[in-house]
Design brief:
Pathway: Cofactor biosynthesis; NAD(+) biosynthesis; nicotinate D-ribonucleotide from quinolinate: step 1/1
CATH architecture of the largest domain: Alpha-Beta Barrel
Largest sheet: 6 strands, parallel
Oligomer: single chain
Protein name: Probable nicotinate-nucleotide pyrophosphorylase [carboxylating]
Number of domains: 2
CATH class of the largest domain: Alpha Beta
Helix content: 40-55%
GO molecular function: nicotinate-nucleotide diphosphorylase (carboxylating) activity
Order of helices and strands: HHEHEEHEHEHHEHEHEHEHE
Number of helices: 11
Function: Involved in the catabolism of quinolinic acid (QA).
Mean pLDDT: 96
Distance between the termini: 27 Å
Pfam families: QRPTase_C, QRPTase_N
CATH superfamily of the largest domain: Aldolase class I
Structural class: alpha/beta
Strand content: 15-25%
């Protein structure tokens, strides 16, 4: 498994998967309950497209919640890239559990693998540079923990998981507070150690103000590349410990030029919001 990808503990993951199963099963799997008694069976998961696999341990947990006797064996590791037609997992156990859990388990892995696949493409564009790709809070409600896990499997770094992880002063916060100085001053006296303060900036004047009042991280939002280079130079000259993040309209075509400005991080929602699903299928043997 990619060392960056850490799944939430069982106490967090199981209730989430329970809700997914309940949504699909409803009052019962009518088809499977009518056909299957106590038969045992085997199945294989087949990749129907090339891509990066993510989420197999989650799929294993889905089946185990239905029946602990199900044995789910991942044939490929998280983060590996099987080719179309390759077997990615083998499953054996009670057929009713295999059939009832099939769609939920596949949906999760196809979604997460699609995210990991696109993430890897972005990461590869800047792999030889020190800049790191990070995700955002633009995630599917209910799926954030898993989608961010997939981002890490694809080789990127997770940004804050929620509003309680860090302070990010965005344009609307600045407008509501009456300026960057006022926003930082009011927030700094109310947050616990060791939360950091990040400020979103759109021009050099805002960058200078964020530096003056002690921002820990400065985001360069939707800046042209030439302006971004000037901002990076200004920040480095003032305080080399301040981290710099670039954000806004990052694409596969632009990510490298942004990284070459010298920013520490590039945040993008694209690997989640613009990724497709990696097609997989389950075949009973």
């Amino acid at each position: 498994m990619n060392k960056l990808g850490i799944l939430p503990p069982t106490i967090v993951l199981e209730p989430l998967l329970h809700s997914f199963l309940l949504e699909d099963i409803g009052r019962g799997d009518r088809t499977t309950q009518a056909l299957i008694n106590h038969e045992e069976g085997q199945a294989k998961w087949i990749a129907k497209a090339d891509g990066v696999i993510a989420g197999l341990p989650v799929a294993a947990k889905v089946f185990s919640l239905l029946n602990e006797k199900v044995n789910f064996v991942a044939v490929v590791a998280e983060g590996e890239s099987p080719e179309r037609g390759n077997v990615v997992a083998e499953i054996e156990g009670p057929l009713d559990a295999l059939l009832t859990g099939e769609r939920v388990a596949l949906n999760i892995v196809m979604r997460l693998s699609g995210i990991a696949t696109l993430t890897k493409k972005y990461v590869e564009k800047i792999a030889d540079l020190p800049t790191k790709l990070v995700d955002t809070r633009k995630t599917t409600p209910g799926l954030r923990l898993l989608e961010k896990y997939a981002i890490a499997i694809g080789g990127a770094v997770n940004h804050r998981m929620g509003l309680d992880d860090a302070v990010m002063i965005k344009d609307n916060h600045i407008a509501a507070a009456g300026g960057i100085e006022e926003a930082i001053s009011r927030i700094r006296h109310q947050i616990p150690y060791p939360l950091t303060i990040e400020v979103e900036t759109e021009n050099l004047a805002q960058v200078q103000e964020a530096l003056q009042y002690g921002a820990d991280i400065i985001m360069l939002d939707n800046m042209p590349v030439d302006l971004m280079r000037q901002a990076v130079s200004l920040i480095r000259q003032h305080n080399n410990r301040v981290k710099i993040e670039a954000s806004g309209n990052i694409t596969l075509e632009t990510i490298r030029s942004v990284a070459e400005t010298g920013v520490d991080y590039i945040s993008s929602s694209a690997p989640i919001t613009q990724s497709g699903w990696l097609d997989l299928s389950m075949k009973i043997q």
